[in-house]
Design goal:
The complex is a heterodimer of chains A (366) and B (520). Helices cover 30% and strands 23% of the residues of chain A. With 366 residues, chain A is of the alpha/beta class. Chain A folds into 3 domains: 73 residues, no CATH class; 62 residues, no CATH class; 173 residues, 3-Layer(aba) Sandwich (Rossmann fold). In chain A, the strands form 4 sheets. In chain A, strands 11-10-9-12-13-14 form a 6-stranded mixed beta sheet. In chain A, α2 packs across α4 and α6 runs parallel beside α7. Chain A starts with a helix and ends with a helix. Chain B has 4 domains: 130 residues, no CATH class; 75 residues, no CATH class; 97 residues, no CATH class; 76 residues, no CATH class. Chain B contains 20 helices and 10 strands. Chain B has a 5-stranded mixed beta sheet with strand order 6-7-8-9-10. A 3-stranded mixed beta sheet of chain B has the order 1-3-2. Chain B has a two-stranded antiparallel ribbon with strand order 4-5. The longest helix of chain B has 22 residues. Chain B is globular, with a radius of gyration of 28 Å. Classes of the chains: A alpha/beta (366), B alpha+beta (520). At the A-B interface, α1, β4 and β5 of A face α2, α3, α6, β4 and β5 of B.
């Protein structure tokens, strides 16, 4: 049974992914890949293909509902997952569920067919982990193994004849006590740092920041699924760069010119000071609208070439489309991609392009 | 059943078999009348798969079932919803149960299933459905698989996509009504042109003839009648045809395998149509049955809490959305109450004394009999039309909502009874979908196809309408046109296979002219 539906399901996935040439692709509606991080409530995208049919438009449509409410009061979006009543409600194709970030990363990896990240081998640092695997006679009371202790006490009482069947009281004495013991197991652990850089100059609008926010969230989720204890560094820059916290990163709005090299310089300093490349897997992402001071460009490329790129696992440059920017930086940095395998450049003209851009960045498995 | 092909045994456990026999006994005692019911116990994944296929494990392959499966699977996996049961209108009735359900859930679901089976067998709108659909669907599946092997999966799938785009363009009532005379097969008429055209000639004396029956008047009449006759014989189809699928099957230049597939899609549409026509009633009836059987007979005291929890989940309203289970159940209960107390008929309706009305009780006890009659003779539209009362709407806090362009969302529109009833009926009419019919199969005398949207105040969703038109064009092969109204203006949307065009229509072609009464 399952195999049969599996074939139809595979077929559907292929159409959605554009692997089968089909004129249906234009009807694919894509639930947005967005996570609300506050309480880990996440929308699961359900790509759907709507077969076109004669249907009523929204205008003039309506239906019957029940409950309290004044006339003129707007109704919230329809609740997903409930039976539809004679098609009088717009269909929601997004499921809202609570998920852990690990589950999310798994879904993301599956959706985008991402390769798993291969941490750089020699940069692994070894930590030790304790595992409770044995028993011994002494130890702290907090580690006392109750069941074994009482079993031993019962055994002793039975043998020594002090156990009273009518009054079954077991009193363990010191010799009965058993404690859990642990072994130290060396564990290879790889650590990683993600450096997010964003251009907050006047030409970046809120829409572009939203794109960066969504993209950064997914990159973050994916990388965190592969390393324990990922550190994050946020850098914003216009003509000068500064390190900020996460909230500021997404909410600052500056004005003024752009000097990309300032951010690269700062990132380089932070790496040298806090994250020596021999110990850390370093991921750097820079988002900008590609507008930069003309004479700054050679300097940028120089910093990248000689200092930053050799130190990182991956450097992603994502360029969003701005109504103001010239977007020329993309072409300059693109020239470096032949030289450096760890450099990925991606163009993100709108929200729909986010998914492909994530794929560009993370598709290398670095 | 071998069709399921599961690695585990799907038949009921001995414990559940005993429960089933017990519940079946209660169902018969209650007066239900059903075909034999075969229960199958399934894992969630298999149940989701069968549900995606509309209940038929051997249905033809199509990606849309895979899409439905993904949604069911994800909602189940993330714990948002689960299917308790699935019943198939067939003789014998097949009912699929979730293996992991608790015993009290299985009891409830079985009682619910017997309600559905009784409804399938007895409701008039199911009378014309194929009761051997399980075999028929397997047959359809085998045929389409064979075509896929022969003509290629991509080609057959692309054709199926087009058929599914118009699968709802059927004439639901045609199964019960004779829309047209059978074409005469043995009656060879003389060519119609030679028949004299009868004119109205009043009897009179011969000398008065030129005055009572003036020659020019007679000629005029003859001319008019000839034109009428010509116009009539030219009409193709003679009457506007709502069964667009049938029209295409008969007249579109299709290959035999394509015609067969279109026929399969059409047959399945007719099979499923009554379930959409009676959703409120069917669910209401099954819920009424399970609650009666469970609370009066089957429930063990230790199961009461679990039963209540589950039952309230079934009839709970999710936000402002109308729950068909709840509406159906409450209406059936209301009908039973009204016919028990005699709150119907002229005398009750015309009573002005509210106090008297409130206490009205003739002690007729006709309720049970009445609801059995209602479940036999009504569909959702007539059910709502006949039995929805203002008191009922007030008690259940019903309101209507409408799309607000300003707010960009639906807003509460009114709490008036008439409006509520109108909205409900509108959304049930033709399953809440626009009515489309073929008016001319030889439009502009060029073999083009003219469709008309029976406009009733709500515009079509344009992008979909155009795409659907393109699909019909692909079947018809000549240009296809649709008369509709776009933003208040009568419009003709055309598709010639390469691109679409829209142009305003003259007064005479306004689809509103022939439309049924407006709803607003």
């Amino acid at each position: 049974m399952v195999q049969r539906i599996q074939r139809d399901y595979e077929r559907f996935r292929k159409i959605v992914r554009g692997k089968i040439k089909s004129n249906l692709s234009k009807y694919i509606t894509r639930g947005e890949l967005i996570g609300k991080r506050g309480n880990d409530l996440v929308s699961i995208p359900l790509p759907q293909i709507e077969i076109p049919q004669f249907r009523y438009g929204l205008k003039g449509r309506g239906g019957v509902g029940q409950g309290e409410g004044e006339i003129g009061q707007p109704l919230g979006p329809p609740q997903p997952g409930t039976g539809s009543q004679a098609g009088d409600q717009p269909g929601g194709h997004i499921l809202e569920v609570e998920l852990t970030l690990e589950e999310l990363a798994e879904i993301l990896g599956e959706e985008l067919a991402l390769p798993r990240i291969q941490p750089k081998g020699r940069k692994n640092i070894h930590t030790t982990r304790e595992r409770y695997s044995g028993i011994r006679q002494s130890g702290p009371e907090s580690l006392r193994h109750f069941k074994r202790t009482f079993k031993r006490a019962l055994k002793r009482q039975l043998i020594s004849g002090t156990y009273d069947f009518d009054k079954p009281v077991i009193v363990p004495i010191r010799e009965d006590k058993q404690y859990r013991s642990w072994k130290e197991i060396p564990l290879p652990q790889s650590v990683a740092v993600i450096i997010f850089m964003m251009d907050v100059s006047g030409s970046m609008t809120d829409e572009q920041k939203e794109i960066v926010r969504i993209e950064a969230f997914w990159i973050d989720t994916w990388i965190r699924a592969h390393y324990k204890g990922v550190q994050r560094v946020y850098i914003i820059h216009d003509a000068v760069a500064q390190e900020v916290d996460e909230h500021t990163f997404y909410h600052t709005r500056e004005s003024g010119g752009t000097k990309i090299s300032s951010a690269y310089e700062l990132a380089d300093q932070i790496i040298d000071k806090r994250f020596p490349p021999s110990d850390w897997n370093i991921y750097a992402f820079h988002f900008s609208d590609g507008d930069n001071w003309g004479d700054d460009i050679p300097h940028c490329l120089e910093v990248l070439r000689s200092r930053l790129l050799p130190k990182v696992n991956l450097f992603g440059y994502g360029q969003v489309e701005s109504p103001y920017g010239s977007g020329e930086f993309l072409h300059h940095i693109e020239d470096l991609t032949n030289e450096f395998d760890q450099l990925v450049v991606s163009h993100i003209p709108n929200r729909d392009a986010i998914i492909n851009s994530i794929k560009d960045f993370l598709g290398k498995g670095k | 059943m071998s069709l399921l092909n599961t690695p585990y045994d799907t038949s009921l456990t001995p414990e559940l078999r005993a429960v089933q026999q017990e519940i079946e006994g209660y169902a018969r005692e209650f007066g239900l009348d059903f075909y034999e019911v075969i229960f199958e116990l399934l894992d969630a994944d298999d149940l989701n798969a069968i549900a995606a296929y509309g209940g038929f494990p051997t249905r033809y392959p199509h990606w849309s079932f895979g899409m439905a499966y993904e949604e069911l699977k994800k909602t189940y996996d993330y714990g948002l919803a689960k299917i308790y049961e699935l019943v198939i209108n067939n003789d014998p009735c097949y009912a699929y149960l979730m293996r992991s359900n608790s015993l009290v859930d299985q009891k409830l679901v079985m009682a619910h299933v017997y309600g559905h089976c009784d409804f399938f067998k007895n409701n008039a709108f199911f009378a014309h459905t194929n009761r051997k659909m399980m075999e028929e669907m397997a047959n359809h599946g085998a045929r389409i698989r064979r075509y896929m092997e022969k003509y290629g999966e991509d080609e057959v799938e692309a054709f199926l996509d087009k058929c599914k785009s118009i699968e709802d363009l059927i004439d639901v009532h045609s199964v019960a009504i004779r829309r047209r005379d059978e074409p005469p097969r043995f009656d060879f008429e003389a060519a119609k042109d030679e028949e004299p055209i009868p004119v109205t000639r009043f009897k009179t004396k011969s000398y008065l003839e030129p005055y009572v029956n003036p020659e020019e008047l007679l000629k005029e009449e003859e001319e008019r009648k000839r034109k009428e006759r010509e116009a009539k014989s030219k009409n193709f189809p003679e009457q506007p045809e709502r069964d667009v699928l049938l029209f295409l099957m008969q007249y579109a230049p299709l290959k035999p395998w394509q015609r067969d597939i279109l026929g399969i899609v059409r047959e399945e549409s007719y099979y499923f149509a009554p379930q959409a026509q009676t959703k409120i009633m069917n669910e209401g009836w099954a819920t009424y049955v399970h609650s009666t059987i469970m609370t009066k007979r089957a429930l063990h005291p230790s199961e009461v809490i679990d039963y209540c929890d589950h039952h309230s989940g079934t009839v709970a309203s999710h936000g402002p959305r109308l729950n068909p289970y709840k509406l159906g159940l409450e209406l059936f209960r209301d009908i039973e109450f009204r016919w028990n107390t005699g709150r119907f008929g002229k005398e009750y309706e015309e009573c002005d004394d509210l106090e008297k009305k409130r206490k009205w009780d003739l002690g007729l006890g006709l309720g049970r009999k009445k609801i059995f009659e209602v479940r036999r003779t009504h569909n959702d539209i007539t059910f709502i039309d006949e039995f929805l009362t203002p008191e009922f709407c007030i008690e259940h806090k019903y309101f209507t909502f409408a799309w607000s362009e300003q707010a960009g969302t639906f807003v509460i529109e009114s709490r008036e009874f008439q409006k509520i009833k109108q909205r409900l009926l509108f959304n049930l009419t033709n399953f809440g979908k626009p009515i489309i019919c073929v008016v001319d199969g030889n439009y502009r005398n060029r073999g083009e196809l003219l469709l008309r949207h029976e406009y009733n105040g709500v515009d079509l969703r344009l992008d979909h309408a155009i795409a659907t038109l393109a699909n019909i064009q692909a079947l018809w092969t000549r240009p296809v046109h649709l008369q509709t109204v776009v933003e208040g203006k009568p419009t003709l949307i055309s598709h010639d296979g390469a691109e679409h065009s829209m142009k305003p229509l003259g007064e005479s072609d306004d689809p509103r002219r022939n439309a049924p009464a407006k709803t607003r």
